[in-house]
Design goal:
With about 500 residues, the protein is α+β, with helices and mostly antiparallel strands. The protein has helices at about 5-15, 40-60, 65-80, 105-120, 125-140, 150-155, 160-165, 175-190, 195-210, 230-250, 250-270, 295-310, 315-325, 365-380; strands at about 30, 355, 360, 365, 385, 390, 400, 405-410, 410-420, 425-430, 440, 445, 450, 455-460, 470-475, 475-485, 485-495, 495-500.
């Protein structure tokens, strides 16, 4: 599993999506090889693009072409040329763009300015972010609900018939302020802007009450009667509640997220990583297309709960969702090739929504960026050094100045860990493998297996010279069944990899 290569391929896809004739504005989606792109929701994707590219640069040293970065920053500036100072679109007809009132993208706007502050030290972005916060503060109540009439764009550029026909559509707290909380927390941490913390508190209190239950069951009060909720927004809201609870040391937020993870997240993101675009309000009943951003969200949430809240068994969930859904769900060269044999680079390396539960992927700019956002966090925590020593959390191929990891899977798993210095080493052992199958050697010599929690512990005195530790363990085979709209999908597993599914999808299947 070459996670870094997958991330680089996804990052290149975001570059290839940009249209030079429109100042590199990326399209909303590309459905099939050679098909026309669907051009809308630019304001949503500007923030996504900037956040993903800057995170990747910081995580893996990815190089952003200066021309495209300058263009995307210019796009952000132009889209904010309105009285709201939010990327609702310019008022001068620039590039043919019309104003668009889209509160769903508030998180994306704050992610963009936060990343420019954090990774580019941009005072311009910090000032723009504060102006955004002033509008959001004016246009929301202390109870966390919106005052739409305080948005100039809503008053002057939303058609009256839309307001009358469905005054709540797209403007409820679910899908707007829930997903915004984590970006507000990060912006506060980057800038110290107290208005960001005040707004995070406002929206967090609302969603603790209306989007969670103490027993972890799904709370739909924030949807205000909408027929369906957005899974990616819901999971983003949980991540925001956890971050806010950690920042402010309020355990009711952290406890609510852990309970919700165990009861609800593991239901709406299936064991295979399958997740519907809209929340499954009735177990097993899906009313919308599947997509890849939600399993990425769930994997990142599992990572935080594991490493910061002692729930280390959840690392099994995080690695399984990456192996079983995110990496197989990335569009390959063969899948991106059109009828003429030409590789459509707008699809190559992308993630997105797909037409069938197990394939026929389509390239969505925002989903590709969201998956990359989550994978950056997973990648940074494959191996970490602390006072306890060197800890290997995930069994992906990896190398940095402190360690090299080579993961091979055949009849059994072999994980070779080569540290650059003699440290105590902790290697996570998945709970799904039989403990009696685990063997550890250092320098080719067997050493007794010492399990401390979920980790095999190799003390400094047992590490060979030169240091090399090899862990082997069994990959049990099993079959599971997941039901989607009455259809039973049978998955064949080897360890935490899916190696086959029936019935399968054609074209562009995920699995054999």
């Amino acid at each position: 599993m070459h996670l870094k290569q997958a991330m680089e391929l996804g990052a290149q896809n975001l570059l290839d999506l940009g249209n030079p004739e429109r100042n590199y504005l990326p399209p909303f989606m590309v459905p099939d090889p050679g098909a026309p792109a669907k051009d809308h929701a630019w304001n949503h994707n500007i923030g996504r693009w900037l956040d993903a590219q800057l995170r990747l640069e910081e995580t893996i040293g990815w190089k952003i072409p200066p021309e495209q970065e300058r263009a995307m920053v210019e796009n952000l500036r132009k889209f904010c040329e309105n009285p709201d100072r939010l990327p609702f679109g310019p008022r001068d007809g620039w590039k043919g763009v019309k104003p668009d009132f889209y509160l769903h993208s508030l998180r994306e706007y704050m992610l963009a300015v936060n990343s420019l502050v954090r990774y580019r030290k941009s005072p311009w972005a910090a000032d723009l972010g504060h102006r955004m916060l002033e509008t959001l503060h004016r246009a929301s109540r202390p109870d966390g609900t919106w005052i739409l009439g305080e948005f100039d764009t809503y008053v002057n550029f939303v058609e009256d018939y839309v307001k009358v026909a469905d005054k709540n559509q797209g403007f409820t707290p679910h899908g707007t302020s829930d997903r915004l909380i984590e970006a507000l927390v990060w912006f506060y941490q980057s800038t110290g802007d107290p208005l960001a913390l005040e707004l995070a508190d406002r929206f967090a209190r609302y969603h603790l009450k209306n989007s969670t239950h103490p027993d972890g069951t799904l709370n739909l009060a924030s949807l205000e009667g909408q027929p369906a909720g957005h899974t990616h927004s819901y999971l983003g809201g949980l991540r925001g509640l956890l971050l806010f609870g950690e920042l402010t040391r309020q355990h009711e937020y952290m406890d609510a997220v852990l309970s919700t993870y165990r009861v609800t997240v593991r239901r709406i993101v299936r064991e295979s990583g399958y997740a519907s675009h809209d929340l499954e309000q009735v177990p097993g009943q899906v009313t919308n297309i599947p997509e890849c951003s939600s399993p990425g969200d769930a994997a990142q949430l599992a990572l935080w709960l594991a490493l910061r809240h002692g729930q280390t068994e959840l690392l099994d969930d995080a690695e399984r969702w990456v192996r079983a859904r995110l990496l197989p769900g990335q569009i390959t060269a063969a899948q991106a090739t059109d009828s003429r044999g030409i590789v459509d680079r707008r699809l190559l390396g992308a993630w997105g929504c797909f037409r069938f539960p197990e394939g026929c992927q389509q390239s969505y700019t925002d989903v590709t960026a969201a998956v990359l956002h989550s994978l950056c966090d997973i990648y940074r925590h494959i191996a970490v050094r602390s006072d306890a020593g060197l800890t290997v959390n995930f069994h992906f191929n990896y190398a940095d100045h402190a360690i090299r990891i080579v993961s091979d899977r055949a009849e059994e798993a072999t994980v070779t860990v080569t540290p650059t210095q003699h440290d105590p080493v902790w290697i996570r052992i998945p709970r799904w493998t039989p403990r009696e199958s685990v063997r550890v050697t250092t320098g080719g010599r067997p050493v007794p297996l010492l399990m401390i929690g979920d980790f095999a512990y190799v003390p400094r005195t047992a590490v060979s010279t030169p240091p090399e530790i090899v862990v082997r363990y069994a990959l049990p085979s099993r079959t599971t069944v997941e039901t989607v709209n009455g259809d039973a999908y049978h998955y064949r597993w080897r360890g935490d990899d899916i190696i086959g599914v029936s019935p399968n999808t054609n074209p562009r299947p995920f699995y054999p």
